[in-house]
Amino acid sequence: MRIIAGEWRRRQLRAPAGEGTRPTADRTRETLFGMLTSRVGSFEGLRVADLFAGSGALGMEALSRGAEHCLFVEQDAAAVKILLHNISTLGAQRRTDVQSGSVLRMGPARAPVDILLLDPPYGTGAGAVALERLTRLGWISPATWIALETARSEPAEARGFIVDAERQVGSARITLLRLPEQSEQGEDDITTETETAPESDDPA
């Protein structure tokens, strides 16, 4: 598993062993960050949260592309050890915070993040639950870009959010979401883009 672009391009990352986590394949990350880049332009100065972080590959990719800071949240102890190793290997300690625990037990935010990356276990509905809670706790504003990865067969459940774009890559589905402005609350969710990327043989 490697960083795709930016300061740490081609640097290798460790991935947790076993079935407790499911690292996002390189091709899936490449597609996800292509979608985000076309919307945010530069990652310079952005504040990011990588939830259900696993090895931290998504957040590390954002930092490599210039993000100012990333919060990683992961509850699997073995994955947290790998995550801390990857942060140390890249020398990213000053630009990161790591919370060992459940995403669903996060406290209130000091301020909303610019980008929220969620890669919850497939088929659990944890992403939808997390989004509802994080919105109430102030992690998400209408300016926040949310990237949610689910199984290809699992449409993103994001009641109250606008679906900006959706793409399928191999066995994964990537959905970009926004929180409506207050004046838009109550309107139907809108899907503006749906694409299927070529199948990938990249290992998860």
TrEMBL record:
<dbReference type="Pfam" id="PF03602">
    <property type="entry name" value="Cons_hypoth95"/>
</dbReference>
<dbReference type="InterPro" id="IPR004398">
    <property type="entry name" value="RNA_MeTrfase_RsmD"/>
</dbReference>
<dbReference type="InterPro" id="IPR029063">
    <property type="entry name" value="SAM-dependent_MTases_sf"/>
</dbReference>
<keyword id="KW-0808">Transferase</keyword>
<protein>
    <submittedName>
        <fullName>16S rRNA (Guanine(966)-N(2))-methyltransferase RsmD</fullName>
        <ecNumber>2.1.1.171</ecNumber>
    </submittedName>
</protein>
<dbReference type="GO" id="GO:0052913">
    <property type="term" value="F:16S rRNA (guanine(966)-N(2))-methyltransferase activity"/>
</dbReference>
<feature type="region of interest" description="Disordered">
    <location>
        <begin position="178"/>
        <end position="204"/>
    </location>
</feature>
<keyword id="KW-0489">Methyltransferase</keyword>
<feature type="compositionally biased region" description="Acidic residues">
    <location>
        <begin position="184"/>
        <end position="204"/>
    </location>
</feature>
